[in-house]
Each structure stands twice: as structure tokens, then as C-alpha cells.
UniProtKB/TrEMBL annotation, chain A:
Compositional bias of kind Gly residues: 92-106
InterPro entries: UPF0229, vWFA_dom_sf
Annotated region described as Disordered, given as residue ranges: 83-112
Domain of life: Bacteria
SUPFAM superfamilies for the chain: vWA-like (SSF53300)
Similarity comment text for this entry: Belongs to the UPF0229 family.
Protein name: UPF0229 protein CK497_11490
Automatic annotation (TrEMBL), chain B:
Superkingdom assignment: Bacteria
Xref: NCBIfam families: PRK11767.1 (NF008737)
Bilayer-crossing regions: none
Domain SpoVR-like C-terminal, residue spans: 448-500
PANTHER family, sorted: STAGE V SPORULATION PROTEIN R (PTHR30029)
SpoVR protein-like N-terminal domain: residues covered: 13-444
InterPro entries referenced in this protein's UniProt entry, alphabetically: Spore_V_R (IPR007390), SpoVR-like_C (IPR057008), SpoVR_N (IPR056174), Ycgb-like (IPR057270)
Name assigned to this protein: SpoVR family protein
Length: 429, 520
């Protein structure tokens, strides 16, 4: 007897839980590998998973085993030239022998001391962003319509046919039928019993009129039972929907980048990576985050994501142009009362000298009061210039919400990123 | 004589109706050969599902544990890098017998796999004495479901971490979860659920009985002072012999019943691991036989299909190539060598039994007077039913197979400067090679022999185990992590003593600090 079953449509990822347990258990090891990987990778690479290695001794499952030493007999196949009594040098001994005996030629290629496996993209990002959070995410007043979600809220007697609850309607109908039939059934039973009693009597004592009367009564009652409707309008029940406002926080993140002539390709790559991390981070953690990309040289322009990262443009540097544009966009599209506002800026610190204090004033007077957080990374191995110093005064005024760090080479990006977006919990304590 | 060829299907594509027709043919032939099998449940699965099945060591339903995740990642990695092909099939000792077939297999592969797993392995599971004694094919799936549910409940109640640590400790000892000489009662899921709660309560009282300090009620012997007065122990507190009265080889059972501090749910989990270890116990001892038997039958059945014209030459050639790859045995000096191939060895022996029955030579008559010339079908059946690898090789490895595989015996003694070739495939060597190969498959030699000898119930509650050392082979370095796990389960210090011929060769203990104290 044989049954064939096609299991292919069945759930995959049966091992998902076990896999998670494993990753959880070796979190520390994996995190180290992931950090190395992020520093090593190029931007376009972030979309794939990562190969991770853990020392085998750290994850072994020990059992009682024989160790090396002592005397043992080994039977092997493929004897060509050996005769009984031959002595063979130990493999691996002086001169290397001819490789006879145990385990001579097994594990080649991959070393045995590393357990290697591949993280999926999701798992990889999970580790990259582990412990990071958008700073100062506040609950803002609910935005009007979009935030309302229809939820099921019990049952009602009225509604549209498409929302009929069949089970509940049938149950009501059933209950009603029982209730309506019960008294009739009782009367019917009584009548039938009376009729039976009458008919059991001696023919002489029977009352023919009574029998006729009872029979008529029975017939009438049976008709009444039949007349009870199977389902009635009273029985119908409808699923009820209620509008429930969903408390949710929405945020917008402005990515501001300098693409002026003073930014070398290397600078841009680093800046791009910083934003890319940021972008992946937001995409992953917050569904309701909007992104606005602003690139600037002497003039600022809002661009789409593609253009932001991949198109080329050069010129001088006026940082305030970008800040002004951001401010305009905020006024027009993202009123501070409804949105959490974040700005992340990357630059090489180069700016027209008299522009830096304009930037500071713009920040202190207009932007900072509305913002949740401002992160500035300066990508330069050189001395800081006026922009950095002006920003330092801003940071002093808004220590909680303004952060600035310097990045020298690609290896710094990830640590700086982590530092900027570390869970704020520890700082508050 | 040539047969009119009417192949059931040609090419390499398959579909369910074709498979069903092949299965009907195979079932008919198997019936003709009197193969006694469980009903088959053949499940077609994807590559990923096969990796899942691998990771859960072939249990169709498994409880959650990180080690299975590790297994999965390892399989996935090896498979993706092309280092390893997945098995074409996986078969579970259950009733009905569940066999997984990969969807990527060609038609030939599917037919081969059905013959191999659904008629070969299946009949082995049903017939071999070890499987009959140790496993209950009817209830294993139910039991696995019970185990998974129970462990999930424990995780909810006591936390994933606590359960994980317990499982780690149990897994370390799972090869020591079997009574080799007692037949266990079959496990049944309903029974387990029904009895599990009362067992929890009852077990706990039993343990308390063992550790309680109140003397026994004066019915019969009183443990209190009086008779047998001794200077060293005037109150007679240490009388009553040591516990357990005989060494115990089933460490997990001993822990389950006697570990003083385990909570009832912990005992139950120890029991689950022990029961599952018991289920796999026959498989660990019959690998050569089981694979050999399955290969023998797929080879026989496929040839019959060909003889009857049910498959075409193309499929048959593909089959022969695949079969040759499966039973290939590279020599010890080949770069592909990774030990003896159980498929090759088992297949060679079963084929040779058949040859000895059908066309015995003088040598066979001398070596196998009982089976030479006997009906082959009955003889292979007898061999399949009544042996395990160790005894099967001892009984049936013929000089011809030793010659064919060119087996030779090497003695590796660390006190000698060189390895020595002790026997080769000649008149003088056959018996020694056979003896040594048989021993090589004996579980008792492959795994260190370790037993509980004393639980100091009247002392510091420490647990003492003996390792019976053989041929000066010491324990591997993993001994410390294992006894640490053992100590976690037992709750008090654990001592492990390696003994050879009555002499102590090495002592291990956990916690280690104590040792240092003694030394200083």
C-alpha cells in the first residue's frame, strides 16, 4: 500500500525557529563578523547577506569520545603493495610517510576549525542595526484620515449583505426556531398522547367527537410547526466595523549632502555609504518614515533617491542653500506639529567663509526648534574649518538633539553611525 | 531471448501518475520476493524542505533547539557551495513508512529511490531484530508531536534559556541513554500524555525517598545502631552498601530517576531525549546492513524491471551509473577516501551471500557450510533479521569480499615507532581482518564505555563514574564539557575515573576547583 503526497506547497522555513535560536546564541560572534563586513563592503553590496564564521570549538556539542593515543586497529580498503608485517612510517611524521592509516587524507579544503554559514539579507541587516534607534521619536498629534483603521467591533442587526456573519445568523435562527416550536411541540405531544389514550379505550367507551377534534388539533399544530420559518430577517447578524484611530508616529528624514568640487570622489563614496546605512536603517525600523534627499553645491536641489546617490554634479559650496531649502520643504510639506523631523548632513567641512555663520543662525533660529535630531558627519582628514566651529556652538546649545562626528576613512563610517544612533536609553540614565 | 520493451515512461521527467505506476510494479515484484514492509507514504519535497529534514536528523516533527539550526546552516552552506549534494531520499522508521523524495530528481532517480527506501529500508525497519526490540514504528510520530508540544510548553513556563541549557546537557549524554540489555517498553504518545502528570508527582516522591534522612520505619531491618557495630561508623549511617548497587550504563535514565534537584518538568525532558536516543539506537548499529540491504534490493528490483521491459535502456544505463557511484569504494590512498563506505560494504556482503547460496565454491563450502547452496532468499532474510553490523560482519564477511575490497588491517600503537600491517587479504589474514572490522563497528568499542558506579547518597552527594579504558585509548578533550553538563544535571560534584585492568589511569572531575584544592 503506497500513498503519494505532494508536500511541496507546504510551509517552508520549518527550521526558521532553530535558525533564529542559533543566531541568538552566537550573537556576539556574528556581530563581530557583521561589523567587519559592513566596513569592508561597497554601497551596492548592502543588499545581500553575509558569510559568517565562528570558531568550531565555541559551538561544538561535546560528547564522550576517544582521544588520540593508545593502540587501535584500523581496517582500510584498497591495499596494493602491503604485506603482512610491513612497517609504515606514521603519516605526518618525519618525511611525511606515504599517507597510510587513519584519517590521512580526509578534510581538505576548508579548515575544520571554522564553522561557516551565510546570513540572509534580513538577518544581516538585523545585526547591523541591532540596538539602534531613531532618537527622540515623539508621538505627534494624529494626522487626519490616514491614521484611522477600521477594526471589527462585534455584531449588529443591520448592515450590508456583504458583511453578514453566516455562523451567527444561523445560530440565531436555530435558537429562534427552537424557541418558537417548543410550545407548539409541547401542545402537539399532549394532543397525541390524549389521542392515543382515547384510542386505547374500549371501542364502546370512545368518544368519536373527541377523536375527530384531537385529530384536527394535531393537524393544525403540525402545520404551525411547519410554518415556523427556517430563517428570518430578525436572525440576520452583521459584522460591525468601527473606526479606530491608530496612534502612530511619522517621521521625515532629510538627507543633505555636499556634492561640490571640494568633495572628492572618495568623500562622496563615504558620504554615500553613511546615507545608505541610514536609508537601510530607516527602511527597516520605521515603516512611516519619509525621506527627502537634498544635494547642494552653490545651489541646493531636492532630488530623488537614485539621483542623490548616483548622479554627478560639481561646483562651489554654500551650505546655507541646502538648509534654506530644507526649511522651505518643512514649511510646505512637513509641518513640525505633525511630523518628527530629522536631518542628516554629510560634508567635507568646506564652505564659503561668510556662509558658516548664516548656517548657524539658520539652525539656531529656524531649524533646531522644530527638529528632533540633527546629525552632521564631516568627512575629512584635515583640520576643521569654519563650518565645524560654527556647528560646535550649535551643539553646545542643543546638546540633546544636535550631534556631530568626524569620519576620516571608510572604516569609521559604521562606528560613527552606531554612535550617532545608539539607543538613547543609556544616555538618559 | 529478447523481451518486448514497453517502458512505463521514458525520458527524465516524472509525474505522479507515472510514479504510481512504477510503484505498483515495484510493489508487485517486492511481493514476489516476499518483502514484508509497512505501508509507504511517499512525500515529494523541495530542496529547502530536504535541508529542513536533514537538520532535524530525519525526525518529521522536532522540538526546537539551536543545534538543529546549526545543522541547517551547515547543510545549507555546504549545499550552496556545491560541496555536498543532498541525499536523493530520506526515510523514516515509522508506520506508515515515510519517505521523502526530492522534486529535482530525475525519473530514474525517483524509481531508484522508491525501490531503495520504500522497499529496501522499509522492510529492514520492519524485520531487523534491533528495530523490533527498540523502536515502535506505530507511535513514533505521535511521540514526536508530544515531545515537541511538551518542550514548547516548558519554554513558555520556564523560559527558552532554561530549557535550552537542559537540552544541551541531555544532548551531550544522549549516546548514553540506552539500556543495552533490557528491552524497553514501547513508547506511545497517548500513554505518555496520560501518564506524564502522575509520573511527575510520583517521581518526585521517589527521589525524595532516596535522599531523605529519616530512618526507615522499623519493619524488618532497622538502620539504626545496634547490630553490626563498627568503630568507624558507630551509628551505622554508612551501612546499606553503595548506591546504585550495580553499575549503570544508562546515564540519562539514572539522571532522570535519581538526580536530586531536578524539577519534574526537567525529568520529563531528560526522558524525552532519552526516548529519542533510544529510537535512533538501532540505526547507529545497523548502518552497513541497512544500506547494504536497501542497495541489494534496489539493484535486484531495478534489474527485474529491466528484464520485464518496464524501463528502457536509457533509464537503465543512468541507473547503473548512479548505482556504481553509490557503492563506489575509493582506496585508502585516494584523495576521495573518507573511510569505508557502508553502502559498498553492505551491498558487497549481501550480494556475496546470494552468490554463496547460488554458486558456492569450495572455499565458500569450507567457510560457510551452513549457507552454501541454501535458497538465497531465505538466507538473506535471515541475515537481515537477526544481526547488527558487528555480528553481521563477523558472520558473513567472506574471503571473496575481503579480496575484492582489498581490506587490510593496520595496528596503530602509540608505543611503537611505526604502524604495522597486521593482516592483508590472504589465507592467513582473512579471520583477523574480519574480526577487526567487526570490532570496528561495535558500538561498545566505537564509544567509550562509561558507567555510573556510585552516588554518594550518604556523603557529599557526588556522583562517581568509571570509564573502562581499552587498549590505553584515553578520553578525548571533550570530556570536560561533557562532565560539566553532567554536573549541571546532577547538581553536585561529578568524578570520572578512567580504569584499565583494574588500575586507575586518569581522574577527571567537575567542578575543577576542587581538584586544585586537593593538590595544594
Amino acid at each position: 500500500m503506497t500513498y503519494f503526497i505532494d508536500r511541496r506547497p507546504n510551509a517552508k522555513h520549518k527550521s526558521a525557529v532553530n535558525r533564529q535560536r542559533f543566531l541568538e546564541r552566537y550573537r556576539k560572534h556574528i556581530k563581530r563578523s557583521v561589523e567587519e563586513a559592513v566596513n569592508r563592503r561597497s554601497i551596492t553590496d548592502m543588499e545581500r547577506g553575509e558569510k559568517v564564521s565562528i570558531p568550531t570549538k565555541d559551538i561544538s556539542e561535546p560528547v564522550f569520545q576517544h582521544g588520540p593515543g593508545g593502540a587501535r586497529n584500523i581496517v582500510s580498503p584498497g591495499n596494493k603493495e602491503f604485506l603482512e608485517g610491513d612497517k609504515i612510517r606514521r603519516p605526518g611524521g618525519q618525511g611525511g610517510g606515504d599517507g597510510a592509516g587513519e584519517g590521512g587524507a580526509s578534510n581538505q579544503g576548508e579548515g575544520d576549525d571554522e564553522f561557516a554559514f551565510t546570513l540572509s539579507r534580513e538577518e544581516f541587516l538585523e545585526f547591523v542595526f541591532d540596538g539602534l534607534e531613531l532618537p527622540n521619536l515623539q508621538r505627534k498629534p494624529l494626522k487626519s484620515l490616514e491614521e484611522i483603521k477600521m477594526v471589527r467591533a462585534g455584531l449588529a442587526r443591520d448592515g450590508v449583505p456583504s458583511r453578514i456573519s453566516i455562523t451567527r445568523s444561523m445560530r440565531e435562527a436555530y435558537a429562534r426556531r427552537i424557541a418558537m416550536r417548543a410550545p407548539i411541540k409541547r401542545a402537539l405531544k399532549e394532543a397525541q398522547e390524549a389521542l392515543a389514550a382515547e384510542e386505547r379505550k374500549d371501542p364502546v367507551l370512545r368518544n368519536p367527537a373527541r377523536i375527530v377534534e384531537l385529530k384536527a388539533e394535531i393537524e393544525r399544530l403540525e402545520k404551525r410547526i411547519e410554518a415556523v420559518p427556517f430563517i428570518d430577517t430578525y436572525d440576520l447578524r452583521y459584522h460591525q466595523l468601527a473606526a479606530q484611530p491608530q496612534p502612530s508616529s511619522q517621521a521625515v528624514m532629510f538627507c543633505v549632502m555636499d556634492v561640490s568640487g571640494s568633495m572628492t570622489q572618495n568623500h562622496k563614496d563615504i558620504a554615500k555609504r553613511f546615507f545608505l546605512l541610514l536609508y537601510l536603517f530607516l527602511e527597516k525600523h520605521y515603516e512611516k518614515v519619509e525621506l527627502v534627499f537634498v544635494r547642494h553645491h552653490t545651489a541646493a536641489r531636492e532630488v530623488n533617491e537614485e539621483e542623490f546617490f548616483y548622479s554627478r554634479e560639481t561646483g562651489g559650496t554654500i551650505v546655507s542653500s541646502a538648509l534654506t531649502l530644507v526649511n522651505k520643504i518643512i514649511e510646505k510639506r512637513y509641518p513640525a506639529g505633525q511630523w518628527n523631523l530629522y536631518i542628516a548632513q554629510a560634508s567635507d567641512g568646506d564652505n564659503w567663509d561668510d556662509d558658516s555663520n548664516i548656517c548657524r543662525d539658520l539652525l539656531v533660529k529656524q531649524l533646531m526648534p522644530q527638529l528632533q535630531y540633527y546629525a552632521y558627519v564631516e568627512i575629512t582628514p584635515h583640520e576643521h574649518q569654519s563650518l565645524w566651529h560654527e556647528y560646535e556652538t550649535v551643539a553646545a546649545q542643543f546638546p540633546e538633539r544636535f550631534a556631530m562626528r568626524q569620519i576620516v576613512d571608510a572604516g569609521d563610517i559604521y562606528p560613527v553611525f552606531r554612535e550617532l544612533f545608539k539607543r538613547r536609553l543609556s544616555q538618559e540614565q | 531471448m529478447s523481451v518486448a520493451r514497453k517502458p512505463i515512461a521514458t525520458g527524465s521527467d516524472w509525474n505522479f501518475s507515472v510514479l504510481e505506476r512504477f510503484d505498483e510494479e515495484l510493489a508487485r515484484l517486492a511481493d514476489e520476493y516476499r518483502l514484508d514492509t509497512y505501508p509507504n507514504q511517499i512525500e515529494v519535497i523541495t530542496t529547502e524542505q530536504m535541508m529542513d529534514a536533514y537538520a532535524s536528523v530525519g525526525m518529521p516533527v522536532g522540538y526546537h533547539h539551536w543545534s538543529f539550526g546549526k545543522q541547517f546552516l551547515a547543510v545549507e552552506q555546504a549545499y550552496k557551495r556545491g560541496q555536498m549534494g543532498l541525499a536523493y531520499e530520506l526515510v523514516i522508521n515509522s508506520n506508515p513508512c515515510i519517505a521523502y523524495l526530492m522534486e529535482e530528481n530525475t525519473l530514474m532517480m525517483q524509481v531508484l529511490v522508491i525501490a531503495h527506501a520504500c522497499y529496501g529500508h522499509n522492510s529492514f525497519f520492519k524485520g531487523n531484530y534491533l528495530f523490533r526490540a527498540w523502536t515502535d514504528a506505530d507511535s513514533i510520530v505521535d511521540y514526536l508531536v508530544f515531545a515537541r508540544k511538551y518542550i514548547a510548553q516548558c519554554e513558555e513556563r520556564h523560559g527558552v534559556h532554561a530549557v535550552e541549557q537542559l537540552l544541551d546537557a541531555c544532548h551531550a549524554l544522549q549516546n548514553y541513554g540506552v539500556d543495552r540489555y533490557k528491552r524497553p517498553s514501547p513508547i506511545s504518545a497517548e500513554e505518555e500524555v496520560r501518564r506524564q502528570e502522575e509520573r511527575e508527582a510520583y517521581l518526585q516522591t521517589q527521589v525524595n525517598m532516596l535522599w531523605r534522612t529519616i530512618p526507615d520505619a522499623p519493619n524488618g531491618v532497622s538502620p539504626l545502631p545496634g547490630s553490626l557495630h563498627s568503630e568507624a561508623d558507630p551509628l551505622g549511617l554508612h551501612r546499606g552498601g553503595i548506591y546504585p548497587s550495580e553499575p549503570q550504563e544508562n546515564l540519562l535514565y539514572f539522571i532522570e530517576k535519581n538526580a536530586p534537584l531536578l524539577a519534574p518538568w526537567q525529568r520529563e525532558i531528560v526522558r524525552i531525549v532519552r526516548k529519542l536516543a533510544q529510537y535512533f539506537y538501532p540505526q547507529r548499529q545497523t548502518q552497513v546492513m541497512n544500506e547494504g540491504w536497501a542497495c541489494f534490493w534496489h539493484y535486484t528490483l531495478m534489474n527485474r524491471l529491466y528484464d520485464e521491459g518496464k524501463v528502457d535502456e536509457g533509464l537503465m544505463l543512468e541507473f547503473l551509473q548512479s548505482h556504481a557511484a553509490v557503492i563506489n569504494q575509493p582506496g585508502f590512498d585516494s584523495p576521495h577516501y573518507s573511510g569505508l563506505n557502508p553502502y559498498a560494504l553492505g551491498f558487497a556482503i549481501f550480494m556475496d551471500i546470494k552468490r554463496i547460496c547460488d554458486a558456492p565454491t569450495d572455499e565458500d563450502r569450507e567457510w560457510f557450510p551452513d549457507i552454501a547452496g541454501s535458497p538465497w532468499r531465505d538466507t538473506v532474510e535471515f541475515a537481515m533479521r537477526n544481526f547488527k553490523d558487528e555480528s553481521f560482519i563477523q558472520q558473513f564477511l567472506s574471503p571473496k569480499v575481503i579480496r575484492d575490497l582489498k581490506l587490510f588491517l593496520i595496528v596503530d600503537d602509540d608505543q611503537m615507532e611505526t604502524l604495522e600491517v597486521a593482516a592483508i587479504h590472504n589465507e592467513r589474514g582473512y579471520r583477523r581482518v574480519r574480526e577487526a572490522l567487526s570490532t570496528q563497528y561495535a558500538l561498545s568499542v566505537r564509544e567509550p564505555n562509561i558507567q555510573v558506579v556510585e552516588a554518594a547518597i550518604r556523603g557529599d552527594r557526588s556522583l562517581t563514574l568509571h570509564h573502562v579504558q581499552d587498549s590505553r585509548r584515553p578520553l578525548g578533550r571533550s570530556v570536560y564539557p561533557v562532565i560539566r553538563h553532567l554536573q549541571q544535571l546532577w547538581g553536585f560534584p561529578v568524578h570520572l575515573v578512567s580504569m584499565e585492568e583494574g588500575r586507575v589511569t586518569r581522574r577527571y572531575q567537575w567542578p575543577i576547583e576542587e581538584e586544585n584544592k586537593e593538590v595544594s
